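LAB NOTEBOOK - FOLDING QUEUE
OPERATOR: T.R.
BATCH SIZE: 2
PURPOSE: Compare the predicted structure-token outputs for two unrelated chains run back to back under identical settings.
PRIORITY: normal
REVIEWER: second-year student, initials M.K.

ITEM 1
FIELD SEQUENCE / FIELD STRUCTURE:
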Amino acid sequence: VQSGAMNIRLIQILPESGEPPKQLMILLHGVGASAQDLVPLAHALRESFPAAAFVLPDGVEPFDASPALAGRQWFSIQGVTEEDRPARVRAALPAFVELIRACQRHFGIGEAATALIGFSQGSIMALEACAAVPGLAGRVLAFSGRYARLPETVSPLTSYHFLHGAEDAVIAASNSRAAFEHLSSLEGGDATLDIADGVGHEVHEALVDRALFRLTHHVPVRIWKEAMGAGAPSPSRDN
């Protein structure tokens, strides 16, 4: 995968059939972690999507809160505040979006067949990238994530699935609930919410099960409208 001048280590898991992949799933790790941490999630998803290419990139920067560790980050959280988080994310977005575009070009897979699947800081980047570049991906799965700032508009080309542990002490589940309610209130918004009781800041099996359910059962609102006419009622958004 060629992404400008960046030299990013990534893991690729391709269809065992040897056939060209029909879908692209890009898994984005949290701060201080690495692509390797999301390999179990990729394998869990692969059972239901054997024709997909899974790409797991390392964050674009070394983890600066503990330079002795080999972890990576998408943006620095040193001294981060609610006020300056949006600016930090904006600064990180060009390289991030180019990485997504490079993966799409490499596999010849378009935006609609691309899913961004993030955990924690990886979710922040996926959510904010699709807010900045409408339609960048057809699906966003945000595990234990949040927006840096809730968007004013939303593209109907992307379905958002928020997945959170109720006991998350790092990024409160209230962030996912607020994002779900906000997107659902916007014209074209298409979102679901799953909160697992007794689960903390982790990619828990219960949330992975819900992610698979959403990926295999959720019909995007735009598809309903195309099939039934723009005046038809939308399917209910259950949480």
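ITEM 2
FIELD SEQUENCE / FIELD STRUCTURE:
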Amino acid sequence: AKPKVSSTLAVRKPGAWIPLDSGIEHRKMTLERSDSSYSFDLNLVRFGRRVRPRIISSGQFQLKSSDAKTLALRSGAVATINANYFDEKGKPLAFLKTANQEINRNVSKHALYTGVFGVQDSMPFIVHRDDFQLTEAQEAIQSGPLLLKQGAAMENIPGAGRYSRRAVIGMDKQQRLIVGVTDTVLGGLSFAELQELFSRPEWQLETTELLNLDGGGSAQLYIKTRSHEEFVSGTSEVPVVIGFFKTGN
């Protein structure tokens, strides 16, 4: 029997962490939905201390929006994942600050945008918006919902059982960042299933903090090392990504 994540979701192939470069590992989990008889992959990348995150705006390259691959190649990032929610004009719907510009200084109280991913003194953090201090972030995006906080599943999440294409960023006990994107156009994962996958030890992800990023057509992930290149493309362009850069230290 395949191990169950939820009553309708099983792990078909758990995959294994494969080192791609110093501080960069890739893993592909294949999941299977029993009530609609389809399977899909959860593409995962894990980063060690030698890889540093940055918030990358398409506007830095005179672009209104773009895809994760283009923004990786333009910025020199080894990997990129889509970031915040935005409106039809590409404007962020909650707090957004890059190293060069504070694009939206409003910390939204919307029920969905309960988490913040940021960078301070080159170190990443993921916090609840109520714990976020504007002066503490050199770069940050507000997104959500925040799914895990200090290892515990957040409760009362709107639409917790709804399936969708997802993109997430998390941090484990070793302060390693983990990003993940599902590759299915139809269906996908629920917030409750993400909480299960990223918190329980049997799935070998175990993040203490986990933040949902903009999903649906925006969800996309690109990675390129000397030995591996992969692009989980979205169906729409995005104005902002989180980029990951090798430091060499």
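REVIEWER COMMENT (ITEM 2): The radius of gyration is 17 Å.
FOLLOW-UP: none requested
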